[in-house]
């Protein structure tokens, strides 16, 4: 809970900085973006007792309303492995899908490169698809706060994003719901459609 409050406070402070810096323009044209990424799903807290660190891949579509604000939708797939001893197969495919908002600054490095630090937040859902016989899948809600940056040249950018997820988790045995936490660390490419 403290992390989420800290994340919201950070997002609010960043929004105030973004508004105060909005008078400076860098020639960024609003439009759509297509993003692809790969990285790591890192369980934290009690989630470490149930899942191993795993590889994540995904894609995003974003709309840049101004040079300081994006609305985005994301989908990610994790080839996960659970630590439940009494399942016949430890593979768990995790699907994460959400929508959110990002606020960013734009700083010119030189005539060709832009540095764009960002913060964001969003909500969505998560599906755990267990490969073990007789278990099936379950879905629950999730929310995140993010911190990252883009290094942009023209219509292409390299992007780093760290997301702190707070999510509902249903036990595959009892269906009891618990609140869990994990982190997503990703590196990706962005194409700005103008």
What does this structure look like?
The chain is mainly beta and 194 residues long. It has a single domain, classed as Porin, CATH 2.40.160.20. The chain has two helices and nine strands; from the N terminus they run αβαββββββββ. It has helices at 2-21, 47-50; strands at residues 31-44, 54-66, 69-81, 91-104, 107-108, 113-130, 137-153, 156-170, 177-193. An eight-stranded antiparallel barrel has the order 1-2-3-4-6-7-8-9. A hairpin with a 2-residue loop joins β2 (54-66) and β3. It starts with a helix and ends with a strand.
Keyphrases for this structure?
2 helices; Porin; single chain; elongated; 194 residues; eight-stranded antiparallel β-barrel; mainly beta
Q: Which percent range describes the beta-strand content?
A: over 45%
How far apart the termini lie comes to: 39 Å
CATH topology category name:
Porin
Strand order of the largest sheet: 1-2-3-4-6-7-8-9
Q: Which architecture per CATH?
A: Beta Barrel
The CATH class label is Mainly Beta
Number of helices: 2
Mean pLDDT: 87
Question: Order of helices and strands, N to C?
Answer: HEHEEEEEEEE
